[in-house]
């Protein structure tokens, strides 16, 4: 028989650890192991904070321990398998161990007396594992309708929306639950970072900064709230303000090891704006890998020689050529192979994506590949070969659809820059005129950007 266990034991974790995170909010877990419940909280807390707690063995240690504590714990399998899926570092299409973990989670759910909320969690990760990100988000939102303080559902939905470029949904998902989160609820301050990110991605920059700073007043080391402010400064081209903010708060946010490198990437973008370089390091996570690709690609468009760095990065990106988990990842892996002049790898990535579009099934990313992913890949290949006319012809018609590849406005800006560079270099007078229009548009949206000014000066030197 399965019991609803409340988190009451404090023997393993520090006194300030939120072991009552779930039970206090009416979110009991179906397991007979109190230890498994505490480990669930440990995993969730580290996920929300973007930080491995070494005193608890980090995320990996806690995931191993939760399996040992109760291998049949449905939500233990949900959070462990779900987090691996969320990293997008591997695919159930290629990784049989991960596919088996998803199947086992579904089988456990079908053979146990678990709550409707837990069943929805299982449905969500099963949909996500098939690439059906929208269906997964629907299931998490169904949970939040009845259980607005289910932080795992909120965070999984937030990340899923991020992967599909669902900006308004990402914002509103948090807004809907905010009235239910009271100051006494553990981790409540971290909702400010989530809320702020949704606000800035829908261009409510003033409100986003205000909400993020309110969160940081409560929790100074909330790296996601810091990340939101970094975005606001980036989108407003407030370079000096961004540099000062990141520097003065570095000691706070660098402890969040899972997000620290990405925040350093944002810091580096300010230097790219100023044509100054700072040391940038990567932890090896998928987020850091795509960040490294994007940073090198931007520098290369600026005329900086980064050839040797591409060769180093290829060692990381090449093994993921056949993954095709998200279009966003694919496009960045392609940057790596193009930068390293690995034409065979570039071609394999493109052909693999083309093959998957023939029978995409319910995989939302593969469904989008034909009209979005493949044209973007082809545009990058054409640009690499000096075919700037064709690059513009491929990118311009889909520029307002590129949001659907996921990521943030700041991350996708690399493709806006690519279109501008291609238009400026194109032999077509119409494309050159388009390039001028795109620069005017960019200047209006992001006033006082040093990068935009440089592009305008370059365009003037090329075409008068």
Walkthrough of the structure:
- Residues 1-18 form the signal peptide.
- Keywords: Repeat, Signal, TPR repeat.
- This is Tetratricopeptide repeat protein 38.
- It comes from Gouania willdenowi.
- Belongs to the TTC38 family.
- With 464 residues, the protein is an all-alpha fold.
- Among the domains are: 1-165, Serine Threonine Protein Phosphatase 5, Tetratricopeptide repeat (Alpha Horseshoe); 189-281.
- It has 23 helices and 2 strands.
- The protein has helices at 34-49, 58-69, 74-86, 96-111, 116-129, 133-146, 151-164, 167-177, 190-201, 205-218, 223-235, 239-248, 250-253, 257-273, 286-301, 307-317, 327-339, 343-356, 364-384, 388-395, 409-425, 429-445, 450-463; strands at residues 4-5, 29-30.
- The protein has a two-stranded antiparallel sheet with strand order 1-2.
- α7 (151-164) runs antiparallel to α8 (167-177) and α20 (388-395) packs across α21 (409-425).
- The longest helix has 21 residues, at 364-384.
- Residues 1-20 have low confidence and may be disordered.
